[in-house]
Amino acid sequence: MAHEELPFDFELLCELTETNGVPGYEDRIRDIVRRELTDEVDTIESDGMGNLVATVEGTGDQHVVVAAHMDEIGFMVRHVTDDGYLKLDALGGWDARVLKAQRVTVHTDDEDLTGVIGSPPPHTLDESDRDGDDTVDDVYVDLGRDGDEVADLVSIGDFVTTQQSTTLMGDHVTGKALDNRVSVFALIEAARRLDSPTATIHLAATVQEEVGLRGAQALGVDIDADVAYGLDTTVANDGPNFSKEDRVTALGDGAGIKLKDSSAITNPTVHRRLTALAEKREIPHQPEILPAGGTDTAGLQFAGGATPAGAISFPTRYLHTVTESIHVEDIEAVIDLLVAALETEDGSTDYRL
């Protein structure tokens, strides 16, 4: 499939995923979201943590918030050795096994520097090295410079991201930071497609989700919504070496409608309404029960009091790697279901249990 054939703005999705922003340092992503949403919404504001909220005023009294986090997993420089190697502190959940021989970007105050995560050649490893458990503490970044030059260029606290382009691979989009830039992208696409909603819609691009849902928790206090939706990626263990019951979701089977994850149990009325909408509009969909992992849904659900909450998810293979992959039809299905949910929120649904 060529990107010209896609029903959504693939170039914008690439820009969002290839641009870098770790928890607490989402500035570059926030600038793109503000640029894209300013002309699509009635107001747009940011807060002291960096959450960005774009509001489409409705004709009724209902208020709805949709949250998608801007941050990606990454690192912060915690030490620079005398020889010029960087030691890292993880920002978010990394499986250190996937980091060997990765190219990274070190973001300093003055410039972005390319580095590589060192990996010794297999010829030099003994049996105990091959069987060892890798941790982020073992990782180092080589900048190809001597110690004095690195000391002048890099400071403790500079952030580090992996380097990867986003591309089409058959019917899949693959790259880094699809978790969760694909959801930020969906917020933008939804704003473009919404037309005179009854409810006032707050489209929230949140911060610091990967380190504890922090932005959404703060936002849940600031916005008094009648219903909240989280928007995020979810596990698709639909490849080899997984049993069918461990799949969670499967690529190409449609939008995930969350029932639960380890941080939230969604409101039954919300997820039943989403399912009924998907069936009525013939939007491909699948139920999602995620055994481990949380989303901004939980941050919104009770931060400011009891709020009915649900979530729509993008089935994603290889989460928290640089080769995350999502089916193009699932991207469109999530956007379609999100727009359907927002344009039909009119205050007539009683979410109390």
From TrEMBL:
Annotated region (Disordered), positions in chain: 112-133
InterPro entries: Peptidase_M42 (IPR008007), Peptidase_M42_aminopept (IPR051464), Peptidase_M42_dom2 (IPR023367)
Pfam families: Peptidase_M42
Residues holding Zn(2+) 1: H69, D179, D232
Keyword terms: Aminopeptidase, Hydrolase, Metal-binding, Protease
Record text on cofactor binding: Binds 2 divalent metal cations per subunit.
Catalytic residues in the record: E209
Swiss-Prot/TrEMBL cofactor(s): a divalent metal cation
Signal peptide: none
Sites where the protein binds Zn(2+) 2: D179, E210, H320
One example GO MF annotation: metal ion binding
Keyword Hydrolase listed: yes
Sequence similarity: Belongs to the peptidase M42 family.
Name of the molecule in the record: M42 family peptidase
Species per Swiss-Prot/TrEMBL record: Halosegnis longus
Taxonomy of the source species: Archaea, Methanobacteriati, Methanobacteriota, Stenosarchaea group, Halobacteria
